[in-house]
Amino acid sequence: MASSTTCDFCGTTVPGDPPLTWTAAVEGDRLRRFCDSCSREHLRAMEAKLDSDFW
Ligand SMILES: [Zn+2]
């Protein structure tokens, strides 16, 4: 059976399991996946958010 993985940010879909370059993040009860390029953006955003929490 073919499964695919979709980026929750830009909607990019790849067949099969997500590549190692993809990122998985749990937000509440949902598992979200981000492709390699969105992972970079997401990481930056997460870091920015974390930083603002500490301020
Ligand atoms: Zn993406």
UniProtKB/TrEMBL annotation:
Highest taxon of the lineage: Bacteria
Name of the protein described by the UniProt record: Ribosome-binding protein aMBF1 (Putative translation factor)
